[in-house]
Amino acid sequence: MAQMPTEFVKFHFDNWFVDDPMHIAPFTVYQVGEIDTYPGFELANHQNNQHELTYIVKGTAQITCGDTVYDCKAGDIIYNAKGDTHAIKNAESQSLRYYFLSFGIDDTSSRAEKILSDFFDTIGSGKTIADKAIPNAFQDIFINLYDEDELSKALIVDSIRKILIFTHRSFEGKANRVYIPDVRFGKKRIISQICSFIDSNVEDISTLKKLPEKFGYSYSYLSSFFSKSMGISLKNYFLLSRHRYECDLLKSGLSVTEVAERMGYSSIHAFSNAFSAREGISPSVYADKRKKK
Asked: What is the largest CA-CA distance in the chain?
């Protein structure tokens, strides 16, 4: 844990509880927040006195954990074990934005907390692809952090627990699991599987033609069966899911350029045209409206 440098920092929502830890049973929070930086940002090498998680929202960086340097990108979760050294250096050509949480697990009387405590005490520092539920849990902490009511405190506890559980699952190779309904629903379960798969992986799906590899039916059969069952074509469902995800990215604070690049558009113009055709307003206008709310 270290105080953040102010140079190269665009925005810093730092909640520093090291001198007076935030005890919110069964957890203790020492530091939690978000930082958005300019190219060239560096966090000097320092020793972590507590467990720490870093989630990369955008950009790339080299993150040092102990004796290992990891090349990290958007969507990665990095665990820095208590007692290990830690440093961050982002790419010279782009900005870096990340969430961070320094924590302890004080009460392990619950079976779930005992599993998490044992996991973080033994796994050692490392990085992996994060479950997509992790950034939403961070945002829920930020929203409720300074509210004094009991329900807000309960949401913070639940959000910390979610971050830790989904980090555990991410390192265990169980991130972004897809809901599969009971087999007694017969072929109808394929529809639910397809919807869940598209919604959970919309950023990574480049073409629907690969769905047969996942579900074992031809694309023409899947497309026809989906349309008859859902009243919307498979392609339109995919485009609608992409659009919802693009809206969520804009709401999270990513720029129009960053969303266009992340979603694989050939240009900002192509993204703007596609977004405007579905939403009725440009992505920049949409983002501005969300900021004013």
From this structure: 62
